[in-house]
Amino acid sequence: MGRDGTLTLGDEVLTSDSSRFWPADEWQPGRTQHAFDKQFVRDWATSTGWDKTPPGPDLPIDVVDATRARYVEAFERITGQTWRPA
């Protein structure tokens, strides 16, 4: 809250980059969840042995495509609309 009482959002909120989303109908305790966030990419990068020293590894097209598919699915589930690229 600013000094004048105005609330200003300075970053993103409730996006698949800043929040964790899982499909409620698939969620089960104690296991890795299908998530609609960038954890999928983090997990892939870790699996390559990358030590987190820049630059990161190049993403193969299948990882890019799978990440995009997760973001599209999240959009469609949240909005009830079909994703239509611009």
What is the secondary structure topology, with strand pairs?
Blueprint: H1 39-47, H2 61-79
Short description:
This protein has 86 residues and is mainly alpha-helical. Helices cover 33% and strands 0% of the residues.
Low-confidence stretches: none
The number of distinct helices, counting runs of at least 4 residues, comes to 2
Number of self-contained structural domains: 1
Could you estimate the helical fraction of the residues in percent?
A: 25-40%
What's the mean pLDDT score?
85
DSSP strand count: 0
Measured distance between first and last alpha carbons: 35 Å
Rg from Cα: 17 Å
Strand content: under 5%
Major sheet: size, sense and barrel closure?
none
Structural class by SSE content = mainly alpha
Give me the strand/helix succession: HH
Shape estimate = extended
Note down, in words, how this protein is organized.
This protein is mainly alpha-helical and 86 residues long. It has one domain (15-86). It contains 2 helices and no strands. The chain has helices spanning 39-47, 61-79. The longest helix has 19 residues, at 61-79.
Which descriptors apply to this entry?
86 residues, 2 helices, mainly alpha
